[in-house]
């Protein structure tokens, strides 16, 4: 079967145009409204906790805020690297928790931030409102903590403490909630 060159050229041109349109849309409109990272991070969470976080995101959306999950489950290597930040690595101290001492290690914590026009609002006048939304559905909000105020942080340990989870981790070597 012989394929005419003009059909090959048309096919290649159509593919290039389709890829170009896809790239343009992903940088403009789709990126602003579709957050694949949050969806992937939500999959890393314990199922009952994931349901509560989805509720928080939904309530925020109903209130006109686009919240995105920027951090969820962390393995030991990632947690220890964050702990080293501001101590033995450059940057500001962002956590007081080493591996096993963070609710992120047990798939029971997230960090969120509101986005506007595709950009995160770190200095956000809505933090207290966001915190209250999370607390209303039974989440613990890091904005109430005294050692490090962690306004993006929400957790639910399912009635357990990080200390009890850590003891189990020391006993079994597994980060299980």
Mean residue pLDDT: 87
Helix content: 40-55%
Number of domains: 2
The CATH top-level class label of the largest domain:
Alpha Beta
Q: Measure the end-to-end span.
A: 61 Å
CA-atom Rg in angstroms: 21 Å
Content-based structural category: alpha+beta
Order of helices and strands: HHHHEHEEHEEH
Largest sheet: 5 strands, antiparallel
Strand residues, percent: 5-15%
What general form does the structure show? globular
Topology, number of strands = 5
Q: Tally the helices: what do you get?
A: 7
The CATH architecture of the largest domain comes to: 2-Layer Sandwich
Stretches where pLDDT falls below 50 for ≥5 residues? Answer: 28-33
**CATH topology group of the largest domain:** Muramoyl-pentapeptide Carboxypeptidase, domain 2
What characteristics describe this protein?
5 strands, 5-stranded antiparallel β-sheet, 2 domains, Muramoyl-pentapeptide Carboxypeptidase, domain 2, alpha+beta, 177 residues, 12% strand, 7 helices
Would you mind describing this structure in some detail?
It is a single chain. The chain is α+β, with helices and mostly antiparallel strands. The chain has 2 domains: 1-34; 35-172, Muramoyl-pentapeptide Carboxypeptidase, domain 2 (2-Layer Sandwich). It contains 7 helices and 5 strands, in the order ααααβαββαββα. It has helices spanning 5-27, 29-33, 36-43, 47-62, 76-84, 127-136, 162-172; strands at residues 66-71, 109-116, 119-120, 140-141, 153-155. Strands 1, 2, 3, 4 and 5 form a 5-stranded antiparallel β-sheet that branches. The model is unreliable at 28-33 (pLDDT under 50).
């Amino acid at each position: 079967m012989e394929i005419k060159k003009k059909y090959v050229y048309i096919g290649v041109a159509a593919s290039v145009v389709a890829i170009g349109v896809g790239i343009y849309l992903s940088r403009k409109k789709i990126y602003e409204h579709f957050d694949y990272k949050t969806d992937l991070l939500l999959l890393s969470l314990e199922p009952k906790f994931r349901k509560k976080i989805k509720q928080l995101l939904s309530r925020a959306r109903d209130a006109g805020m686009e919240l995105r999950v920027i951090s969820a489950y962390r393995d030991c290597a990632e947690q220890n690297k964050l702990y080293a930040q501001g101590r033995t690595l450059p940057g500001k101290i962002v956590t007081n928790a080493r591996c096993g001492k963070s609710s992120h290690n047990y798939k029971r914590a997230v960090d969120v931030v509101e986005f506007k026009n595709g950009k995160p609002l770190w200095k956000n006048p809505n933090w207290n409102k966001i915190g209250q939304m999370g607390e209303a559905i039974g989440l613990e909000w890091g904005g109430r903590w005294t050692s490090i105020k962690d306004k993006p942080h929400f957790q639910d340990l399912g009635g357990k403490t990080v200390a009890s989870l850590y003891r189990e981790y020391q006993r079994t070597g597994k980060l299980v909630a």
